[in-house]
Design goal:
homodimer, 336 residues, alpha/beta, 434 Repressor (Amino-terminal Domain), Rossmann fold, six-stranded parallel β-sheet, 13 helices, 46% helix, DNA-binding
DNA sequence: AAGATGATGGTTAGCGGTAACTTTCGAGCA
DNA sequence: TGCTCGAAAGTTACCGCTAACCATCATCTT
């Protein structure tokens, strides 16, 4: 009895070809040692010959496992997320899991939509950037019964697994480095102002408050970061607060843009103005002077996520918890 | 009869709750106008109350359509791909399609694996970066019966839809711009050396050959591009070919790294050395001087991909073809 | 008033796999 | 020789959903 004419090759086609039942073919693929060698070889030959593509939708439906994990990231062009992705992917691949990616564009609504989609495909785990989600998304996640990782920032109330670093402490530490070098008028320059940027800014404020200094010189925008924007915003800040001695930019891109603007204005860094960024991307070492920054352990975060996820997928239970992987303040040459 | 205790909420649970059959619930979701208003409202209430997550794996299995499209990209951190992604996503979302992303790390083997995975999930379309694939991948794609887009570069033998630009012509045009400005010793600096980098290099060679000039000053590496690497490689080139007048870097990151290195060496750009990159990313306008580059219509490429894909998904047939969206050479200030 | 019509909802049969149990059969052992 | 046992393959049922067809009933026709 022929299968639907148009359709793709199924297990049944392979089975017919070899003269066995489809469960045997299924086993030859998933548990080869359970099928005798000669038969297995004939099955493999038939698979190659007919060009069989396993239907994961069907497999996931029947077994409840898909051997894939979804990672939802706010931005594709931000190197922060690509480092984390690499760490996760490397760990998962070794265990036979595929990493699927979704792009949220910093929108928790879009995140919700993707959570729904990927859970609907039956992914075995989910990694989210950040700890803020829609109410509906949290409900979905709780009911889903799969391990969920929230990453980058830390939260006292993790949904499940939380791996990251204390963004506020990092912002504070960097600001205190400025203070330790004698700077007093330290501004904050922020773009996008997603939750992590807000936390860093809170750290900046806390450090200044603790030192009894003004937190007035603060310029933020919801626009996405770019080199151009960093330059423009630095211009605005200098115009508005000419006595500014140092600027903490909420990420490296903005800081680099600010540095380029200083170069155009022939404003010496760090003598006339000190600068710092956040993340420790490639560019901070390329500029002259190298930029001060907070180096975040992104690769390591990805690796730890993969480890924790695999442990859970292997059946190891654990209760919600946070892991703080720390950070490192680096002075570069832009704080002097 | 109770459903499995542990499991998630299914259509049947909603149906039981409301007192109808599951097909009615299914219709309420997919074709609301086919279900009477009062009943629909009761169904919607039950869905909200019980927290139903549709199982797309099952839906895709039963219907053969998943309302999702996969995009496979070589690198997450490269802004080139994020621009394309944005263009595609915007177009697809309006039509109710989800864009799923896979990361190949410039490996066609990994690409093959992801093609297999996503086809196995029943995606309705596939967008690939580049035109080179494994033999097995091409076989899978041909059999899959879904629209396939190859993008960025052009090929005389597209699998299906091909949208991009002529990388060789672009490399040649940029090199000819150097020549038009009187430069004679024009080097090529390339990293990663994926297929597109090779095509650009071929354009550089062709332009120099046509002008009867030497193609000796060429330095390439399989390492991934970075600012640091651009600086280091420029150093090597200057050491080896001190008389070099201009360098065509195979992308903007390398060019920026090279420019930073020139600044460190107090080598005036473009007076002592001219530089150019490729792609037209944000950074080329941020540096001093702005970098010469080839601006590629990435966003537009993404939009056109979405258009073509949607036309095909709506049933409009078409035979394999290529679309050339062109490019624009921009001199910045680094060619003088 | 009888049949045609359209709106609404139900029935049946799968999509392509896998889990769990069962059958078959030859080897090993007392 | 009779029995147990394990390896190898088969049977059955079902995962959650949708296509295609069918049943029902109020509303129109003429």
């Amino acid at each position: 009895m022929p299968r639907r004419a148009s359709g793709r090759v199924t297990l049944q086609d392979i089975a017919d070809r070899v003269g066995v039942t489809k469960i045997t073919v299924s086993r030859a693929l998933r548990e080869p040692q359970r099928v005798s060698l000669p038969l297995r070889q004939r099955i493999e030959a038939a698979i190659a010959e007919l060009g069989y593509i396993p239907n994961h939708a069907a497999g996931a439906l029947a077994s409840g496992r898909s051997h894939s994990v979804a990672l939802l990231i706010p931005s594709l062009s931000n190197a922060v997320f690509s480092d984390i992705q690499r760490g996760i992917e490397e760990g998962l691949r070794a265990a036979g899991y595929q990493l699927l990616i979704g792009h949220t564009g910093y929108s928790i609504l879009e995140e919700e939509r993707l959570i729904d989609t990927y859970l609907g495909y039956g992914v075995d785990g989910l990694v989210l950037s950040g700890t803020r989600h829609t109410e509906h998304a949290e409900r979905l996640l709780r009911r889903a019964g799969v391990p969920v990782v929230e990453t980058l920032e830390l939260t006292p109330t993790p949904l499940d697994i939380n791996v990251g670093l204390d963004q506020t402490a990092a912002g504070r530490a960097l600001t205190e480095t400025f203070l330790a070098h004698g700077y007093r008028r330290v501004g904050f320059l922020g773009a996008r102002m997603d939750h992590r940027a807000q936390l860093r800014m809170a750290g900046w404020e806390a450090a200044l408050r603790a030192a009894g200094l003004s937190t007035e010189s603060c310029l933020t925008t919801p626009q996405p970061s770019s080199y151009r924007l960093g330059g423009e915003m630095l211009g605005s800040m200098l115009e508005r607060w000419p006595a500014l001695e140092a600027v903490f930019c909420c990420n490296d891109d903005l800081a680099a843009g600010a540095l380029f603007e200083c170069q155009r204005r022939r404003l010496a860094v760090p003598d006339a103005l000190a600068l710092a960024g956040f993340n420790g991307l490639d560019i901070v070492e390329a500029t002259t002077p190298p930029l001060a920054t907070v180096v975040t352990p992104r690769r390591r975060i990805g690796e730890v996520i993969a480890e924790r996820l695999l442990a859970r997928l292997a059946g190891q239970p654990c209760r919600p918890h946070s892991e703080d992987l720390g950070f490192e303040v680096r002075c570069g040459g832009s704080i002097g």
